[in-house]
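Forum > Structural Biology > Help requests

Title: Can anyone predict the 3D structure of Shikimate dehydrogenase (NADP(+))?

Hi all, first post here. I have the sequence for Shikimate dehydrogenase (NADP(+)) but no way to get a structure on my laptop. I'd be grateful if someone could post the structure tokens.
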Amino acid sequence: MKFAVIGHPIKHSLSPLMHHANFKALQTDDEYTALHIDPKHFHHLRDIIHEKAIDGFNITIPYKVDMLQVVDVVDTKAQMIGAINTVHIKDGVWYGYNTDGAGFKASIEEHIGGKNIVVLGAGGASRAICYTLFKDNKVTVLNRNCNRVADWPFQIDAYKYEESDVIIQQADIVINTTPVGMEGFMSETLIDIAQLKSSAVVCDIIYTPDTTPILQSAAQRGLKIINGLDMFVNQGALSYEIWTGKQANKAAMKQAVINHL
Ligand code: ATR
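Reply #1:
Sure, ran it for you. Structure tokens for Shikimate dehydrogenase (NADP(+)) below:
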């Protein structure tokens, strides 16, 4: 089968390398390519994909939200998350899914259930994670702008960082979904790590670099930390499972990414 990841820019995507490791482990001759789609060609996407006989593809920045208008059928989870990261084409019909939230959830499965979870940021990644966790946990968003959660089709409390002391003190899990920690932001953390319980788990969805200021501060305090690598692997594995109905070899996928980094 033929798969791809589309985006703009796309050349830094590790998805082809990761999926090829899976194909090799499963001994299939599937293919997976990175496809740069210039914004001025996005409205031709269906023709481009059809011409390349692609069976399924992933979507990255900046097209996850726009993709809702392109597919024929939107899965409920993707609708609630407001973004599509996986398209499966079956008999010419385009089905849209979102595996980002479920990918993250799988990466912290052993820590969740009835927990106080604090999510930093209120963008697309935050919405995917909040939607996947809010039914079984108490989820609170911290963001500079609390209005961003107002139009989500599920109810999440949001506070500003300045009014978050008690929320931080009660948190069991903190998840950073903001770009704070990526290059250019290196020295900042948005919350005071010293206020967290000693049993708290701190996560960042970033995996390049493999550690970020918030994870470093948490590790220095001896807290359990989790970066975004497993989320990335899990979302890819879930996409593969949607496309093929087969289980992906997640260990091979993860090792390929680690070897590259
Ligand atoms: P993504 O789709 O990857 O989640 P996004 O939609 O651009 O990205 O969302 C990024 C989030 O990081 C936003 O919640 C943003 O805060 P605002 O909603 O207040 O803009 C947050 N963010 C970005 N830069 C930040 C910074 N320097 N400090 C704090 N939060 C920041």
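The chain has a mean pLDDT of 96. The two ends are 27 Å apart (CA to CA).
Shout if anything looks off.
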